[in-house]
Design a protein that fits this description.
Blueprint: E1 7-12, H1 19-35, E2 37-43, H2 64-74, E3 77-81, H3 82-87, H4 91-96, E4 106-108, H5 110-119, E5 122-126
Parallel strand pairs: 1-2, 1-5, 2-3, 3-4
């Protein structure tokens, strides 16, 4: 990490179907990684559906493979809100690991998001359209 580099925590609340917001989040993260460090990316609210994009590979707006590549190449922790998974009744899908979600995304609580926010230099939030 360079001397003037910042550490970032990113929060994505936009659905993968809010393509412009999702694409902006991805582009920002990719650009930030050129000179800075992104410690973790949290997918919260409608953002949890990014991890289910593995099921919809035919969608032209699918950023799932891009997030995976970015995370692996830059050691970025991809976190998904366990509270949002439970509130949407998707817990069994995640536990079954049918789409290898657990190998890519780490379940995280809102407390872990707050901890990451306190530890980073910059926090960026991408909200979805309501």
């Amino acid at each position: 990490m360079k001397k003037s580099a910042y550490s970032f925590t990113i929060l994505i609340e936009a659905s993968p179907f809010d393509y412009l917001i999702s694409q902006s989040a991805y582009n920002f993260t990719k650009a930030a990684l050129v000179q800075h460090k992104v410690d973790s990316i949290f997918f919260n609210q409608q953002g949890i559906y990014h991890c289910l994009s593995a099921c919809h590979a035919d969608t032209t707006s699918n950023l799932f493979p891009d997030w995976i590549k970015l995370a692996k190449n830059n050691s970025v922790d991809l976190c998904i809100s366990i509270e949002d998974v439970r509130s949407r009744g998707l817990e069994k899908l995640f536990q079954s690991n049918q789409f290898k979600i657990k190998e890519i995304f780490r379940m995280a609580s809102i407390g872990q998001l707050f901890e990451a926010m306190l530890m980073c230099d910059r926090f960026i939030q991408f909200k979805g359209i309501k």
